[in-house]
Specification:
113 residues; two-stranded antiparallel sheet; 2 strands; 2 helices; mainly alpha
Length: 113
């Protein structure tokens, strides 16, 4: 089942901290705050902003790398470099596993392993 939930448009940013105790996260429509959630520290806010803002580009690059690993593995097999082909296959599989966890339509919302 495809997840149709859309995230807030990017970029997000994190302005100056409030009395050094907590940090707000801002998006195009202003601050994001939910009273049900604990107040987050500056380092966490900055990490969330960096992760959200670079997610799409990182996912794109992972897909490109997975395709490159696949193509390199094929070339190595043709050249009878079986060990190199196996290594590229392992790299492709690992990269595609990361992609599967990061895809927006993936229902896996658990912690990364």
């Amino acid at each position: 089942m495809k997840n149709e939930t859309k995230h807030t448009p990017l970029p997000w940013w994190s302005p100056n901290s409030h009395a050094g105790e907590y940090q707000e996260i801002f998006g195009p429509h202003g601050p994001h705050h939910d009273d049900r959630l604990p107040i987050i520290g500056k380092a966490d806010a900055e990490f969330i902003v960096r992760a959200c803002n670079c997610h799409d580009k990182l996912l794109e690059m992972c897909k490109l790398n997975a395709d490159t690993f696949r193509d390199t593995a094929r070339a190595m097999r043709l050249l009878k470099h079986d060990i190199a082909a196996e290594a590229m296959g392992i790299a492709e599989d690992a990269t595609r596993a990361v992609i599967a966890k990061a895809e927006p339509d993936n229902s896996n919302t658990g912690a990364a392993t």
